[in-house]
Structure formats: structure tokens, C-alpha cells
Amino acid sequence: ASPLLSGSRSSKTFKPKKNIPEGSHQYELLKHAEATLGSGNLRQAVMLPEGEDLNEWIAVNTVDFFNQINMLYGTITEFCSESSCPVMSAGPRYEYHWADGTNIKKPIKCSAPKYIDYLMTWVQDQLDDETLFPSKIGVPFPKNFMSVAKTILKRLFRVYAHIYHQHFDSVMRLQEEAHLNTSFKHFIFFVQEFSLIDRRELAPLHELIEKLGSKDR
């Protein structure tokens, strides 16, 4: 059984971290992203750096968001169980059913931990696919890259939505809320900058998104 389901995970991270190879151009881009984030202006930090390839910028940030969400969810997995979260929801009005189009074609209703396990494993498989996310210099991104990236980000959003709606009290107890809010704000500004997630998909956290946007000077 997956260690996630047995509940006896010693380490806090949920899936192995996806590393961008040091010395690569993508690594430089990631360093650039971290440096601009440090300036505190998130709207500026998400903008495409001058002269850079949009696909590559989206790829680097998608990997980074996967790692961030991985860590954030890793801190609360003990509170997200089959019994506490029998369905994958984001508040009473939103429930998600899993399908990946290949292994599971017809959406299935499953518990949140199971759904998130499926989701993060699926994302990791996409990120590890060199034909989709080429890590070598000069290897072009495929024509369908943008639609794959949009699907990944749309699904990663659901993990934020679940954490906010169902586990925010645990996040507060762990004093992780500043970390969660900064990560989510960065994520939202990024997807807004490049119109990567449909507004309808963002509905479960609409109020929070409005608040984060209005507080930003």
C-alpha cells in the first residue's frame, strides 16, 4: 500500500521533491524567480523575465508550485484522512471526482487523501516526462505544452482549495498560515498573469483571491 494510506510516514514531505538540475538554464530561471520573490513584490515576481521563453518560465514555476504544495500538504496529511475527509471537497458546494483520462477515464468519487495522492502522482508523472517538460537545453516544448501546464495548475489549485476549506484550523495551529498565504498568493498572481486557470475553476476561493488582490499595492 502507498505509505500515504498506511499513515505511518516518518518524513514530512508527501512525494519526492522534483529537482531542477543545477547549472541548467531552468535552474538559473528558478534562482531569478526566488530573487524577485525576495523583493516582496509578487506581481512583479511572476512577470516573464525579459528575453525568456514563456513555456520555460511556466515550466519552471509549475515545478516550483508542485514542490510548494507538496510541502504544505505534507504538513497536514495527518489531519486529512479517509474518515475526516471521505470526499475531496473545497467547502460544501465543491466536490471533486478523479479522472486522469488514461488509467481512470470515468471520474471516481474518492476520499481527499486518495484524490490528492492520485493528483500529485499524476502531476509528477507529467513533470518527469521529458517530452512534455524537457530539461535539456535546446529541446523544444511540445505543441500541447500549454494545455498540459493549464491542467496541472488547475489540479494543483484544488489542493490549495481543500487545505483552505477543510484544514485551515490545523494550518493555524501549526502556525503555517503565513507560509500558505504567501504560496497561494504567488500561485494566484502567476496564473492570473498568464490566464492559466479559468475563473470558474477558481470559484471555491473567490473571496480569498479578491482579498489577496486588493491588499496588494
TrEMBL record:
Q: Which UniProt keywords apply?
A: Kinase, Metal-binding, Transferase, Zinc
Ranges of Polar residues compositional bias?
A: 1-11
Q: Where does Zn(2+) bind?
A: 80, 85, 162, 167
InterPro entries given in the database record: MOB_kinase_act_fam (IPR005301), MOB_kinase_act_sf (IPR036703)
Q: Name one GO molecular function term.
A: kinase activity
Q: Which intervals of the chain are annotated as region Disordered?
A: 1-21
The name this protein goes by in its record? MOB1A kinase
The gene that this protein is the product of is Mob1a
